[in-house]
Design brief:
Helix content: 40-55%
Number of helices: 14
Order of helices and strands: HHEEEHEHEEEEHHEEHHHHHHHH
């Protein structure tokens, strides 16, 4: 292979390859208006479900202490001093951020139950969250008094697209998983799942900002300057399942602050590292292997690297993306302590890197080789397996060799 020095402003083989990866693996085909119809339908139906959930929960005796700090309630309450309002759902995740690399069949939605002001990071606990989980299951498993569907007829073409709630599936972590059925204009049906999560919205008041900023300054990853600045400027944060969540701020950052170029880089990196489904298969292996507690490079870990790259990017060109992809991968490879991978600087996925790092390094080496190659460009010849797929293939090879060794050992003993 003939090699040369790369030029940052040149459309070299790496630029061609990454743009082909984006076009072939990141951009998916859909009917005109199909994605918008699904997004609008999910929003309308889930908002109806949330309304039904919240109108059936209330404070009970012994929980009045929460009223002292309650600023806004999204459930029925008799206390006149407390403002009541309709809870607006918060859409987070790759679909709302515009970074989904496949058909939008998984939605992440949060809904606040009430808004409370903090006192040095503390707010009184209630049973409302557990009641919300109970009501989600109750509302979605009983005969519906309100029609939970969304229909869009097209009289010109004599076809109808529809989306309707199907059933409650299960609890998964802090989420209740709900299933919907989408039918396109040709009558083809697809399942769509929604992770619905109740939360508490917490306001950090002016005289308590010192605590908030001190807490964040101590625990936030100092490398994630841009994201941390956004979080620090917010007046509210969410508490999900007893833990502080900055998911809403992260989604805002992805939609409104991260450049289109870096959003494209993020989508390409998700394919290069996890492919279409390779990461999920790898995580399934890690969950089922009794000797392993590891996890692969999740989309969130890659996203967090993009927060860091947004601040550290050394590639000013608007169109070229190859050097950005390489820079992010280089940071992932050299960051042995993994402090970049989370907003919280104390977290670590060092063991995961020990397992996957060699395959991440091979990916980076392959991309550098493509960039400096003077050979004629051929996408099919250059196509590479994802990092997760390479690791899975190595596992299969190891299992095959282990079985082969065991078989040879049995044959040897039988000859004795």
């Amino acid at each position: 292979m003939t090699m040369r020095s790369p030029n940052k402003n040149e459309i070299n083989n790496l630029e061609l390859y990454l743009n082909d990866v984006y076009g072939n693996k990141c951009v998916f085909k859909a009917e005109p208006g199909e994605i918008e119809f699904i997004q609008a339908g999910i929003k309308i139906i889930v908002q109806k479900i949330v309304h039904l959930v919240l109108e059936n929960i209330s404070l009970t005796a012994g929980e009045e202490e929460v009223l002292l700090n309650l600023e806004e309630a999204y459930f029925p309450i008799k206390k006149k001093q407390v403002k009541t309002a309709k809870s607006s759902i918060i859409q987070v995740g790759s679909i709302s951020e515009g970074t989904k690399n496949s058909f939008p069949d998984e939605f992440d939605i949060i809904f606040p139950i009430y808004l409370v002001k903090t006192y040095a990071g503390w707010c009184p606990r209630t049973k409302l969250l557990s009641k919300a989980y109970e009501q989600i299951k109750t509302v979605t498993t009983r005969p519906h008094t309100e029609c939970l569907n969304h229909i869009c007829p097209n009289e010109t073409l004599n076809v109808t697209k529809s989306l309707h709630f199907d059933r409650y599936v299960r609890e998964h972590g802090p989420a209740s998983v709900l299933r919907f059925i989408y039918k396109n204009g040709l009558g083809d049906e697809k399942y769509i799942h929604v992770d619905l999560v109740p939360a508490i919205k917490i306001t950090v008041l002016g005289d308590q900002r010192d605590w908030y900023e001190k807490f964040n300054g101590k625990y936030f990853n100092p490398k994630l300057v841009s994201l941390c600045s956004k979080i620090m400027s917010d007046k509210n944060y969410l508490e999900v399942d007893g833990r502080i969540s900055f998911t809403e701020s992260e989604s805002h950052f992805m939609r409104n602050i991260l450049s289109k170029k870096h959003s494209k880089v993020y989508r390409i990196l998700k394919i290069l590292i996890n492919g279409h489904g390779d990461g999920e298969i790898l995580n399934l292996y890690f969950r089922t292997d009794p000797h392993s507690s590891e996890k692969g490079y999740s989309s969130h870990k890659i996203k967090t690297m993009m927060f860091h790259h947004h601040h550290e990017c050394k590639n000013p060109g608007e169109e070229t993306i190859g050097d950005c992809v390489k820079q992010v991968l280089e940071e992932m490879c050299k960051d042995s302590n993994n402090e970049n991978h989370t907003v919280w600087g104390t977290d670590s996925i060092l063991q995961t890197q020990c397992l996957l790092l060699p395959y991440l390094e091979k990916l980076l080496e392959g991309l550098k080789s493509i960039q400096t190659s003077e050979d004629s460009y051929d996408y099919e010849k250059l196509r590479m397996k994802s990092v997760s797929k390479r690791y899975l293939d190595a596992l299969k090879e190891k299992e095959y060799l282990d079985r082969d060794k065991q078989g040879n050992a049995v044959c040897s003993r039988s000859k004795l």
